[in-house]
Amino acid sequence: MTWTFVNDTFAEEGKATLQTGDLAIQRGYAVFDFFRTNNNVPLFLDDYLDRFFHSAAALFITIPYTRSRVAEIIFELIQKNNLPQSGIRMIATGGYSPDSYTPVQGNFILQQQAIQLPDAARFEAGIRIMTHPYQRDLPAVKSINYLMGIWLQKQLQEKGLDDVLYVHNDIISEFPRANIFIITPERTLATPAHHVLAGITRKKILEFAGALLPVETRDISVRELKNAAEVFMTSTTKRILPVTEIDGIRVGNGKAGPFTRQLLEQFIRLQEPGYGT
Amino acid sequence: MTWTFVNDTFAEEGKATLQTGDLAIQRGYAVFDFFRTNNNVPLFLDDYLDRFFHSAAALFITIPYTRSRVAEIIFELIQKNNLPQSGIRMIATGGYSPDSYTPVQGNFILQQQAIQLPDAARFEAGIRIMTHPYQRDLPAVKSINYLMGIWLQKQLQEKGLDDVLYVHNDIISEFPRANIFIITPERTLATPAHHVLAGITRKKILEFAGALLPVETRDISVRELKNAAEVFMTSTTKRILPVTEIDGIRVGNGKAGPFTRQLLEQFIRLQEPGYGT
To answer: pTM value?
Structure first.
Protein backbone atom coordinates (compact mmCIF):
# COMPACT_ATOMS: atom_id res chain seq x y z
CA MET A 1 0.00 0.00 0.00
CA THR A 2 1.41 3.35 -1.06
CA TRP A 3 -0.19 6.49 0.28
CA THR A 4 -0.63 9.71 -1.65
CA PHE A 5 -1.30 13.06 -0.02
CA VAL A 6 -3.92 15.14 -1.79
CA ASN A 7 -5.76 18.20 -0.53
CA ASP A 8 -5.21 17.75 3.19
CA THR A 9 -5.56 13.98 3.49
CA PHE A 10 -3.58 10.83 2.92
CA ALA A 11 -5.40 8.63 0.42
CA GLU A 12 -4.88 4.98 -0.45
CA GLU A 13 -3.78 3.97 -3.90
CA GLY A 14 -6.53 4.55 -6.44
CA LYS A 15 -8.40 6.88 -4.08
CA ALA A 16 -6.19 9.91 -4.55
CA THR A 17 -8.18 12.00 -7.02
CA LEU A 18 -8.80 15.48 -8.37
CA GLN A 19 -12.10 16.68 -9.76
CA THR A 20 -12.13 16.86 -13.54
CA GLY A 21 -12.54 20.65 -13.36
CA ASP A 22 -8.95 21.06 -12.14
CA LEU A 23 -6.86 23.34 -14.35
CA ALA A 24 -4.26 20.56 -14.83
CA ILE A 25 -6.92 18.43 -16.55
CA GLN A 26 -8.63 21.32 -18.34
CA ARG A 27 -5.54 23.22 -19.49
CA GLY A 28 -2.39 21.34 -18.48
CA TYR A 29 -1.69 24.14 -16.00
CA ALA A 30 0.34 23.02 -12.98
CA VAL A 31 3.89 22.95 -11.59
CA PHE A 32 5.70 20.08 -9.98
CA ASP A 33 9.01 18.90 -8.64
CA PHE A 34 10.59 15.53 -7.99
CA PHE A 35 13.30 14.55 -5.52
CA ARG A 36 14.82 11.32 -4.24
CA THR A 37 15.02 9.81 -0.82
CA ASN A 38 18.00 7.74 0.30
CA ASN A 39 17.40 5.56 3.35
CA ASN A 40 14.19 7.52 3.93
CA VAL A 41 16.10 10.83 3.92
CA PRO A 42 15.18 13.40 1.24
CA LEU A 43 18.18 14.51 -0.82
CA PHE A 44 18.70 18.26 -1.32
CA LEU A 45 15.20 18.98 -0.05
CA ASP A 46 15.84 22.71 0.38
CA ASP A 47 16.92 23.04 -3.24
CA TYR A 48 13.84 21.23 -4.50
CA LEU A 49 11.48 23.20 -2.27
CA ASP A 50 13.11 26.43 -3.47
CA ARG A 51 12.52 25.47 -7.06
CA PHE A 52 8.96 24.21 -6.46
CA PHE A 53 7.87 27.44 -4.77
CA HIS A 54 9.67 29.47 -7.42
CA SER A 55 7.89 27.58 -10.23
CA ALA A 56 4.51 28.10 -8.57
CA ALA A 57 5.09 31.83 -8.07
CA ALA A 58 6.21 32.21 -11.70
CA LEU A 59 2.93 30.68 -12.91
CA PHE A 60 0.76 32.54 -10.35
CA ILE A 61 -0.15 29.22 -8.74
CA THR A 62 -0.96 29.29 -5.02
CA ILE A 63 0.48 26.40 -3.02
CA PRO A 64 -2.04 26.05 -0.18
CA TYR A 65 0.67 25.41 2.46
CA THR A 66 3.73 27.16 3.83
CA ARG A 67 7.09 25.78 2.90
CA SER A 68 7.64 24.31 6.36
CA ARG A 69 4.20 22.66 6.30
CA VAL A 70 5.08 21.07 2.94
CA ALA A 71 8.28 19.73 4.48
CA GLU A 72 6.29 18.31 7.41
CA ILE A 73 3.87 16.54 5.09
CA ILE A 74 6.83 15.11 3.15
CA PHE A 75 8.24 13.58 6.36
CA GLU A 76 4.81 12.20 7.30
CA LEU A 77 4.52 10.59 3.86
CA ILE A 78 8.01 9.08 4.11
CA GLN A 79 7.13 7.60 7.48
CA LYS A 80 3.80 6.18 6.34
CA ASN A 81 5.14 4.61 3.13
CA ASN A 82 8.58 3.42 4.25
CA LEU A 83 10.05 3.23 0.74
CA PRO A 84 13.71 3.92 1.62
CA GLN A 85 14.93 4.45 -1.98
CA SER A 86 12.19 6.48 -3.59
CA GLY A 87 11.15 9.44 -5.66
CA ILE A 88 8.66 11.95 -4.28
CA ARG A 89 6.64 14.15 -6.61
CA MET A 90 5.05 17.41 -5.48
CA ILE A 91 2.38 18.88 -7.76
CA ALA A 92 0.54 22.18 -7.39
CA THR A 93 -2.20 22.80 -9.96
CA GLY A 94 -4.14 25.83 -11.12
CA GLY A 95 -7.07 24.59 -9.02
CA TYR A 96 -10.81 24.28 -9.63
CA SER A 97 -11.11 27.32 -11.86
CA PRO A 98 -14.75 28.41 -12.47
CA ASP A 99 -13.92 29.65 -15.98
CA SER A 100 -11.53 26.76 -16.76
CA TYR A 101 -8.83 29.33 -17.51
CA THR A 102 -7.94 31.56 -14.55
CA PRO A 103 -5.77 29.99 -11.80
CA VAL A 104 -7.40 29.96 -8.35
CA GLN A 105 -6.37 28.33 -5.05
CA GLY A 106 -4.18 25.42 -6.15
CA ASN A 107 -4.67 21.73 -5.48
CA PHE A 108 -1.64 20.06 -3.90
CA ILE A 109 -0.48 16.48 -4.42
CA LEU A 110 2.41 14.57 -2.89
CA GLN A 111 3.10 11.09 -4.20
CA GLN A 112 5.89 8.59 -3.63
CA GLN A 113 7.21 5.65 -5.59
CA ALA A 114 10.13 3.26 -5.27
CA ILE A 115 12.82 4.04 -7.82
CA GLN A 116 15.92 2.36 -9.10
CA LEU A 117 18.93 4.30 -10.28
CA PRO A 118 20.72 3.23 -13.47
CA ASP A 119 22.97 0.24 -12.77
CA ALA A 120 26.66 -0.15 -13.68
CA ALA A 121 25.90 -1.81 -17.02
CA ARG A 122 23.66 1.10 -18.00
CA PHE A 123 26.41 3.54 -17.04
CA GLU A 124 29.04 1.66 -19.06
CA ALA A 125 26.85 1.42 -22.17
CA GLY A 126 25.73 5.03 -21.94
CA ILE A 127 22.77 6.35 -23.88
CA ARG A 128 22.14 7.09 -27.54
CA ILE A 129 20.33 10.30 -28.35
CA MET A 130 19.05 12.47 -31.18
CA THR A 131 18.78 16.25 -31.37
CA HIS A 132 15.49 17.97 -32.16
CA PRO A 133 14.72 21.65 -32.83
CA TYR A 134 12.64 22.88 -29.92
CA GLN A 135 12.67 25.39 -27.08
CA ARG A 136 10.59 24.69 -23.97
CA ASP A 137 8.11 27.39 -22.96
CA LEU A 138 9.20 29.26 -19.81
CA PRO A 139 12.20 26.92 -19.42
CA ALA A 140 13.15 28.15 -15.93
CA VAL A 141 9.80 26.88 -14.62
CA LYS A 142 9.16 23.20 -13.89
CA SER A 143 5.66 23.09 -15.36
CA ILE A 144 3.84 19.86 -16.24
CA ASN A 145 3.97 20.71 -19.95
CA TYR A 146 5.66 17.68 -21.55
CA LEU A 147 3.66 17.73 -24.78
CA MET A 148 6.73 17.72 -27.04
CA GLY A 149 8.80 15.32 -24.94
CA ILE A 150 6.08 12.67 -24.78
CA TRP A 151 5.07 13.18 -28.41
CA LEU A 152 8.69 12.55 -29.47
CA GLN A 153 8.83 9.22 -27.58
CA LYS A 154 7.34 7.48 -30.62
CA GLN A 155 10.22 8.62 -32.83
CA LEU A 156 12.74 7.57 -30.20
CA GLN A 157 11.21 4.11 -30.00
CA GLU A 158 11.19 3.72 -33.76
CA LYS A 159 14.84 4.73 -33.95
CA GLY A 160 15.82 2.67 -30.92
CA LEU A 161 17.19 5.73 -29.12
CA ASP A 162 17.13 6.62 -25.45
CA ASP A 163 16.43 10.33 -25.39
CA VAL A 164 16.12 13.60 -27.30
CA LEU A 165 18.18 16.76 -26.82
CA TYR A 166 16.44 20.05 -27.64
CA VAL A 167 18.31 22.50 -29.88
CA HIS A 168 17.31 26.05 -30.76
CA ASN A 169 19.10 28.12 -33.41
CA ASP A 170 21.96 25.60 -33.36
CA ILE A 171 22.48 26.03 -29.57
CA ILE A 172 21.81 23.00 -27.39
CA SER A 173 19.65 23.39 -24.29
CA GLU A 174 18.41 20.31 -22.41
CA PHE A 175 16.63 16.97 -22.51
CA PRO A 176 12.90 16.89 -21.68
CA ARG A 177 13.77 15.68 -18.17
CA ALA A 178 17.53 16.19 -17.79
CA ASN A 179 20.42 18.61 -18.27
CA ILE A 180 23.46 18.10 -20.48
CA PHE A 181 27.20 18.60 -19.89
CA ILE A 182 30.18 18.22 -22.19
CA ILE A 183 33.90 17.72 -21.59
CA THR A 184 35.70 19.66 -24.32
CA PRO A 185 38.78 18.28 -26.12
CA GLU A 186 40.76 20.74 -23.93
CA ARG A 187 39.33 19.08 -20.81
CA THR A 188 36.96 21.81 -19.74
CA LEU A 189 33.52 21.01 -18.31
CA ALA A 190 30.72 23.03 -19.94
CA THR A 191 26.93 23.14 -19.67
CA PRO A 192 24.34 25.42 -21.32
CA ALA A 193 23.75 28.64 -19.42
CA HIS A 194 20.47 29.88 -20.86
CA HIS A 195 16.92 28.65 -21.52
CA VAL A 196 17.26 25.49 -19.43
CA LEU A 197 15.75 24.27 -16.19
CA ALA A 198 18.15 24.81 -13.31
CA GLY A 199 18.60 21.14 -12.45
CA ILE A 200 19.56 20.32 -8.87
CA THR A 201 21.99 17.57 -9.94
CA ARG A 202 23.44 20.11 -12.41
CA LYS A 203 23.80 22.63 -9.59
CA LYS A 204 25.60 20.13 -7.32
CA ILE A 205 28.05 19.20 -10.08
CA LEU A 206 28.78 22.86 -10.75
CA GLU A 207 29.51 23.24 -7.03
CA PHE A 208 32.20 20.57 -6.78
CA ALA A 209 33.53 19.96 -10.32
CA GLY A 210 35.82 22.99 -10.21
CA ALA A 211 38.23 20.98 -8.07
CA LEU A 212 38.65 18.49 -10.94
CA LEU A 213 38.69 20.65 -14.06
CA PRO A 214 37.78 24.16 -15.32
CA VAL A 215 34.01 24.75 -15.44
CA GLU A 216 32.02 26.97 -17.83
CA THR A 217 28.30 27.71 -18.12
CA ARG A 218 27.78 29.14 -21.61
CA ASP A 219 26.21 28.55 -25.02
CA ILE A 220 27.24 25.27 -26.69
CA SER A 221 26.69 24.70 -30.41
CA VAL A 222 25.64 21.39 -31.94
CA ARG A 223 29.02 21.23 -33.69
CA GLU A 224 30.89 21.63 -30.39
CA LEU A 225 28.64 19.00 -28.80
CA LYS A 226 29.46 16.49 -31.52
CA ASN A 227 33.18 17.14 -31.19
CA ALA A 228 33.22 16.84 -27.39
CA ALA A 229 35.56 14.36 -25.68
CA GLU A 230 32.76 13.26 -23.33
CA VAL A 231 29.07 14.08 -23.01
CA PHE A 232 26.74 13.21 -20.16
CA MET A 233 23.21 13.88 -18.92
CA THR A 234 22.27 14.71 -15.36
CA SER A 235 18.95 14.32 -13.59
CA THR A 236 17.46 13.41 -10.25
CA THR A 237 16.63 9.86 -11.31
CA LYS A 238 19.71 9.29 -13.50
CA ARG A 239 22.36 11.18 -11.53
CA ILE A 240 25.11 11.17 -14.21
CA LEU A 241 24.78 9.05 -17.34
CA PRO A 242 27.21 9.04 -20.30
CA VAL A 243 25.91 9.95 -23.76
CA THR A 244 27.77 7.70 -26.19
CA GLU A 245 26.02 8.50 -29.49
CA ILE A 246 24.43 11.67 -30.89
CA ASP A 247 22.48 11.68 -34.19
CA GLY A 248 24.32 8.48 -35.16
CA ILE A 249 27.75 9.91 -34.38
CA ARG A 250 29.85 8.24 -31.70
CA VAL A 251 31.03 10.42 -28.80
CA GLY A 252 34.77 9.91 -28.14
CA ASN A 253 35.43 6.16 -28.22
CA GLY A 254 31.72 5.39 -27.68
CA LYS A 255 32.18 4.40 -24.04
CA ALA A 256 31.75 6.04 -20.65
CA GLY A 257 34.59 8.54 -20.33
CA PRO A 258 37.05 8.97 -17.46
CA PHE A 259 35.91 12.45 -16.36
CA THR A 260 32.26 11.39 -16.45
CA ARG A 261 33.14 8.42 -14.26
CA GLN A 262 35.13 10.57 -11.85
CA LEU A 263 32.30 13.10 -11.57
CA LEU A 264 29.77 10.38 -10.73
CA GLU A 265 32.09 8.94 -8.07
CA GLN A 266 32.57 12.40 -6.60
CA PHE A 267 28.84 13.11 -6.73
CA ILE A 268 28.04 9.94 -4.79
CA ARG A 269 30.88 10.43 -2.33
CA LEU A 270 30.18 14.10 -1.62
CA GLN A 271 26.43 14.28 -1.99
CA GLU A 272 25.13 10.87 -0.99
CA PRO A 273 27.38 9.53 1.77
CA GLY A 274 26.38 5.98 2.66
CA TYR A 275 24.13 5.69 -0.39
CA GLY A 276 21.93 2.63 -0.36
CA THR A 277 23.42 1.22 2.82
CA MET B 1 -27.32 19.59 -10.76
CA THR B 2 -25.00 19.24 -13.74
CA TRP B 3 -23.80 15.75 -14.65
CA THR B 4 -20.35 14.94 -15.97
CA PHE B 5 -19.52 11.72 -17.78
CA VAL B 6 -16.23 10.20 -16.75
CA ASN B 7 -14.94 6.70 -17.41
CA ASP B 8 -18.20 4.98 -18.17
CA THR B 9 -20.48 6.64 -15.63
CA PHE B 10 -22.39 9.85 -15.13
CA ALA B 11 -21.19 11.54 -11.97
CA GLU B 12 -22.73 14.37 -9.98
CA GLU B 13 -20.96 17.69 -9.66
CA GLY B 14 -17.88 17.36 -7.46
CA LYS B 15 -17.85 13.57 -7.83
CA ALA B 16 -16.41 13.46 -11.35
CA THR B 17 -12.74 12.73 -10.69
CA LEU B 18 -9.55 11.30 -12.11
CA GLN B 19 -6.83 9.63 -10.09
CA THR B 20 -3.81 11.85 -9.58
CA GLY B 21 -1.69 9.42 -11.62
CA ASP B 22 -3.42 10.48 -14.84
CA LEU B 23 -1.03 11.79 -17.48
CA ALA B 24 -2.99 15.06 -17.71
CA ILE B 25 -2.11 15.79 -14.07
CA GLN B 26 1.40 14.33 -14.23
CA ARG B 27 2.47 15.75 -17.60
CA GLY B 28 -0.30 17.96 -19.02
CA TYR B 29 -0.80 15.29 -21.69
CA ALA B 30 -4.37 15.21 -23.06
CA VAL B 31 -6.50 16.41 -25.97
CA PHE B 32 -9.90 18.01 -25.86
CA ASP B 33 -12.55 19.70 -27.92
CA PHE B 34 -15.42 22.03 -27.18
CA PHE B 35 -18.67 22.59 -29.07
CA ARG B 36 -21.92 24.43 -28.46
CA THR B 37 -25.48 23.26 -28.21
CA ASN B 38 -28.38 25.40 -29.42
CA ASN B 39 -31.79 24.36 -28.12
CA ASN B 40 -30.20 21.12 -26.95
CA VAL B 41 -28.86 20.41 -30.45
CA PRO B 42 -25.08 20.12 -30.89
CA LEU B 43 -23.73 22.49 -33.56
CA PHE B 44 -21.37 21.05 -36.19
CA LEU B 45 -20.93 17.88 -34.14
CA ASP B 46 -19.33 15.95 -37.00
CA ASP B 47 -16.67 18.60 -37.45
CA TYR B 48 -15.84 18.61 -33.75
CA LEU B 49 -15.75 14.82 -33.51
CA ASP B 50 -13.47 14.71 -36.56
CA ARG B 51 -11.07 17.12 -34.92
CA PHE B 52 -11.21 15.42 -31.50
CA PHE B 53 -10.36 11.99 -32.91
CA HIS B 54 -7.69 13.54 -35.13
CA SER B 55 -6.09 15.29 -32.15
CA ALA B 56 -6.09 12.07 -30.12
CA ALA B 57 -4.52 10.05 -32.94
CA ALA B 58 -1.84 12.70 -33.46
CA LEU B 59 -0.82 12.42 -29.78
CA PHE B 60 -1.11 8.60 -29.66
CA ILE B 61 -3.98 8.91 -27.18
CA THR B 62 -6.58 6.13 -27.20
CA ILE B 63 -10.17 7.29 -26.86
CA PRO B 64 -11.84 4.31 -25.17
CA TYR B 65 -15.01 4.57 -27.31
CA THR B 66 -15.95 4.52 -30.96
CA ARG B 67 -16.99 7.73 -32.55
CA SER B 68 -20.65 6.73 -32.63
CA ARG B 69 -20.55 5.73 -28.96
CA VAL B 70 -19.10 9.16 -28.11
CA ALA B 71 -22.01 10.76 -30.01
CA GLU B 72 -24.48 8.59 -28.06
CA ILE B 73 -23.00 9.63 -24.73
CA ILE B 74 -23.18 13.27 -25.82
CA PHE B 75 -26.91 12.93 -26.49
CA GLU B 76 -27.44 11.17 -23.14
CA LEU B 77 -25.60 14.00 -21.38
CA ILE B 78 -27.66 16.65 -23.17
CA GLN B 79 -30.85 14.88 -22.12
CA LYS B 80 -29.79 14.48 -18.49
CA ASN B 81 -28.61 18.07 -18.05
CA ASN B 82 -31.13 20.00 -20.16
CA LEU B 83 -28.96 23.09 -20.60
CA PRO B 84 -30.31 24.24 -23.98
CA GLN B 85 -27.60 26.86 -24.67
CA SER B 86 -24.41 25.19 -23.56
CA GLY B 87 -20.83 24.24 -24.22
CA ILE B 88 -19.75 20.60 -24.09
CA ARG B 89 -16.12 19.71 -23.49
CA MET B 90 -14.69 16.32 -24.47
CA ILE B 91 -11.32 15.40 -22.94
CA ALA B 92 -9.20 12.32 -23.61
CA THR B 93 -6.09 12.02 -21.46
CA GLY B 94 -2.92 9.96 -21.65
CA GLY B 95 -4.39 7.69 -18.95
CA TYR B 96 -3.01 6.11 -15.79
CA SER B 97 0.53 5.64 -17.06
CA PRO B 98 2.67 3.38 -14.83
CA ASP B 99 5.84 5.32 -15.65
CA SER B 100 4.11 8.73 -15.60
CA TYR B 101 5.37 9.32 -19.14
CA THR B 102 4.08 6.79 -21.67
CA PRO B 103 0.45 7.18 -22.84
CA VAL B 104 -1.75 4.15 -22.12
CA GLN B 105 -5.51 3.60 -22.46
CA GLY B 106 -6.96 7.11 -22.16
CA ASN B 107 -9.43 8.45 -19.64
CA PHE B 108 -12.47 10.09 -21.20
CA ILE B 109 -14.43 13.03 -19.80
CA LEU B 110 -17.53 14.79 -21.10
CA GLN B 111 -18.70 17.88 -19.26
CA GLN B 112 -21.35 20.47 -19.97
CA GLN B 113 -21.88 24.04 -18.86
CA ALA B 114 -24.35 26.81 -19.70
CA ILE B 115 -22.69 29.49 -21.83
CA GLN B 116 -23.58 32.95 -22.98
CA LEU B 117 -22.43 34.33 -26.30
CA PRO B 118 -21.09 37.90 -26.50
CA ASP B 119 -23.98 40.38 -26.49
CA ALA B 120 -24.58 43.23 -28.94
CA ALA B 121 -22.72 45.76 -26.78
CA ARG B 122 -19.66 43.51 -26.70
CA PHE B 123 -19.81 43.15 -30.48
CA GLU B 124 -20.10 46.92 -31.02
CA ALA B 125 -17.20 47.72 -28.67
CA GLY B 126 -15.00 44.97 -30.09
CA ILE B 127 -11.90 43.76 -28.28
CA ARG B 128 -8.47 45.26 -27.66
CA ILE B 129 -5.51 42.95 -28.12
CA MET B 130 -1.71 42.80 -28.02
CA THR B 131 0.64 40.68 -30.12
CA HIS B 132 3.18 38.34 -28.50
CA PRO B 133 6.00 36.31 -30.08
CA TYR B 134 5.05 32.66 -29.71
CA GLN B 135 4.27 29.57 -31.73
CA ARG B 136 2.07 26.88 -30.20
CA ASP B 137 3.54 23.35 -30.11
CA LEU B 138 1.88 21.01 -32.62
CA PRO B 139 -0.62 23.74 -33.54
CA ALA B 140 -2.90 21.47 -35.60
CA VAL B 141 -3.64 19.45 -32.46
CA LYS B 142 -6.12 20.65 -29.84
CA SER B 143 -4.04 19.64 -26.82
CA ILE B 144 -4.66 20.93 -23.28
CA ASN B 145 -1.34 22.82 -23.30
CA TYR B 146 -2.33 26.42 -22.49
CA LEU B 147 0.77 27.24 -20.44
CA MET B 148 1.62 30.38 -22.44
CA GLY B 149 -1.96 31.56 -22.90
CA ILE B 150 -2.78 31.38 -19.19
CA TRP B 151 0.59 32.75 -18.14
CA LEU B 152 0.02 35.81 -20.37
CA GLN B 153 -3.37 36.57 -18.74
CA LYS B 154 -1.59 38.53 -16.01
CA GLN B 155 -0.06 40.90 -18.58
CA LEU B 156 -3.43 41.29 -20.30
CA GLN B 157 -5.12 42.21 -17.02
CA GLU B 158 -2.41 44.71 -16.16
CA LYS B 159 -2.75 46.37 -19.55
CA GLY B 160 -6.56 46.17 -19.53
CA LEU B 161 -6.58 44.17 -22.76
CA ASP B 162 -8.90 41.37 -23.87
CA ASP B 163 -6.64 38.90 -25.63
CA VAL B 164 -3.22 38.11 -27.08
CA LEU B 165 -2.40 37.26 -30.69
CA TYR B 166 0.60 34.97 -31.26
CA VAL B 167 3.17 36.08 -33.84
CA HIS B 168 6.15 34.10 -35.11
CA ASN B 169 8.84 35.62 -37.34
CA ASP B 170 6.54 38.59 -37.99
CA ILE B 171 3.73 36.33 -39.27
CA ILE B 172 0.51 36.25 -37.24
CA SER B 173 -1.03 32.91 -36.33
CA GLU B 174 -3.87 32.74 -33.79
CA PHE B 175 -5.16 33.61 -30.34
CA PRO B 176 -4.76 31.03 -27.55
CA ARG B 177 -8.42 30.01 -28.05
CA ALA B 178 -9.51 31.65 -31.32
CA ASN B 179 -8.60 32.26 -34.96
CA ILE B 180 -8.07 35.63 -36.62
CA PHE B 181 -9.32 37.12 -39.90
CA ILE B 182 -8.62 40.44 -41.59
CA ILE B 183 -10.44 42.44 -44.24
CA THR B 184 -7.77 44.09 -46.37
CA PRO B 185 -8.07 47.70 -47.60
CA GLU B 186 -8.91 46.14 -50.99
CA ARG B 187 -11.85 44.30 -49.38
CA THR B 188 -10.45 40.80 -49.42
CA LEU B 189 -11.01 38.42 -46.51
CA ALA B 190 -7.80 36.71 -45.32
CA THR B 191 -6.85 34.35 -42.51
CA PRO B 192 -3.52 32.64 -41.66
CA ALA B 193 -3.00 29.37 -43.52
CA HIS B 194 -0.22 27.70 -41.52
CA HIS B 195 0.60 26.78 -37.92
CA VAL B 196 -2.90 27.41 -36.58
CA LEU B 197 -5.65 25.23 -35.18
CA ALA B 198 -8.26 24.53 -37.85
CA GLY B 199 -11.14 26.27 -36.05
CA ILE B 200 -14.63 25.06 -36.88
CA THR B 201 -16.07 28.59 -36.90
CA ARG B 202 -13.15 29.55 -39.17
CA LYS B 203 -14.01 26.65 -41.44
CA LYS B 204 -17.70 27.62 -41.68
CA ILE B 205 -16.81 31.23 -42.52
CA LEU B 206 -14.42 30.06 -45.23
CA GLU B 207 -17.28 27.97 -46.64
CA PHE B 208 -19.78 30.81 -47.11
CA ALA B 209 -17.76 34.06 -47.18
CA GLY B 210 -16.79 33.64 -50.83
CA ALA B 211 -20.30 34.80 -51.78
CA LEU B 212 -19.63 38.16 -50.12
CA LEU B 213 -15.98 38.93 -50.97
CA PRO B 214 -12.76 37.28 -52.21
CA VAL B 215 -11.25 34.87 -49.66
CA GLU B 216 -7.57 34.00 -49.12
CA THR B 217 -5.85 31.67 -46.66
CA ARG B 218 -2.19 32.73 -46.57
CA ASP B 219 0.56 34.26 -44.44
CA ILE B 220 -0.30 37.66 -42.94
CA SER B 221 2.41 39.95 -41.54
CA VAL B 222 2.00 42.12 -38.45
CA ARG B 223 2.29 45.20 -40.67
CA GLU B 224 -0.58 44.01 -42.90
CA LEU B 225 -2.65 43.20 -39.80
CA LYS B 226 -2.21 46.71 -38.44
CA ASN B 227 -3.16 48.26 -41.77
CA ALA B 228 -6.27 46.12 -42.23
CA ALA B 229 -9.67 47.74 -42.78
CA GLU B 230 -11.31 45.31 -40.34
CA VAL B 231 -10.02 42.57 -38.05
CA PHE B 232 -12.03 39.96 -36.18
CA MET B 233 -11.59 36.84 -34.09
CA THR B 234 -13.59 33.66 -34.46
CA SER B 235 -14.22 30.89 -31.95
CA THR B 236 -16.87 28.49 -30.77
CA THR B 237 -17.84 30.63 -27.77
CA LYS B 238 -17.37 34.03 -29.44
CA ARG B 239 -18.58 33.28 -32.97
CA ILE B 240 -17.31 36.51 -34.65
CA LEU B 241 -16.00 39.41 -32.57
CA PRO B 242 -14.43 42.61 -33.96
CA VAL B 243 -10.86 43.48 -32.95
CA THR B 244 -10.80 47.27 -32.60
CA GLU B 245 -7.30 47.89 -31.20
CA ILE B 246 -3.96 46.10 -31.70
CA ASP B 247 -0.85 47.02 -29.68
CA GLY B 248 -2.43 50.42 -28.95
CA ILE B 249 -3.22 51.07 -32.62
CA ARG B 250 -6.84 51.55 -33.65
CA VAL B 251 -8.19 49.24 -36.36
CA GLY B 252 -10.07 51.23 -39.04
CA ASN B 253 -12.31 53.71 -37.22
CA GLY B 254 -12.10 51.70 -34.00
CA LYS B 255 -15.60 50.27 -34.31
CA ALA B 256 -17.17 47.04 -35.55
CA GLY B 257 -16.83 47.09 -39.34
CA PRO B 258 -19.53 46.50 -41.96
CA PHE B 259 -18.06 43.26 -43.38
CA THR B 260 -17.52 41.82 -39.91
CA ARG B 261 -21.16 42.59 -39.11
CA GLN B 262 -22.37 41.06 -42.36
CA LEU B 263 -20.33 37.90 -41.79
CA LEU B 264 -21.79 37.43 -38.30
CA GLU B 265 -25.33 37.89 -39.64
CA GLN B 266 -24.66 35.37 -42.40
CA PHE B 267 -23.05 32.94 -39.95
CA ILE B 268 -26.10 33.02 -37.68
CA ARG B 269 -28.56 32.84 -40.59
CA LEU B 270 -26.81 30.03 -42.44
CA GLN B 271 -25.33 28.02 -39.61
CA GLU B 272 -27.65 28.51 -36.65
CA PRO B 273 -31.19 28.83 -37.99
CA GLY B 274 -33.60 29.64 -35.18
CA TYR B 275 -30.74 30.40 -32.79
CA GLY B 276 -31.84 30.79 -29.19
CA THR B 277 -35.55 30.49 -29.95
So the answer is: 0.96
